[in-house]
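MODEL INPUT / OUTPUT PAIR
PAIR INDEX: 1
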Amino acid sequence: MRDVSAGGLFVATRLARAVGMRAEVDFLVQEGQIRAEATVRHAERGKGLGLKFTAVKEQDWPHLAALLTRLRHVARSHGKAKSQP
């Protein structure tokens, strides 16, 4: 997984999938399990797939929200570290 947002994610994979195909996503992060249904929005041959979430399990939404919060904090702290001399 390279990028993730509330709307979807990019999965690094060599597997080819056509735009519009449905996918089930199930991954475990320190915040907990996240299970979702998604649709392939774009594919980069040999690099991966951009998936748009079409449904996230209700009990997994808090885990996704917590993951996004953690990633935002990490991104901010890395940005501050780079901007300081």
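PAIR INDEX: 2
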Amino acid sequence: MLMAVEPQPHNRVNGSTPHIPPLVRSRKQRVTITLPVALLERLRNAVYWTGHGTLARLIADSLDDAVAQMEQANGEPFPQRLAQLKRGRPRTKNCSAPTLAASITPEPDQ
């Protein structure tokens, strides 16, 4: 499910709106993805030890870098899509991908 998230303006004491650079004002959408548990733990450790900000910011910055590298290898930005992407994950006969919930739920003590 994709949802648009509009930034809320924060007013100063005198009621004026502070100047926010255009990059901070960019629209955002929520995207739900499934990541391997080991990668998610590495990302969390990187955020914790580097003070990078939030997990979401680290993921967004990393994806931005990856797409920039892909565009550079392509020689130019990719053209706009001609159709929407198919939603959901591909269906296969024997697909048992680990879920994000598995990485959040602690295992019981034995």
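PAIR 2 NOTE: The longest strand covers residues 3-5.
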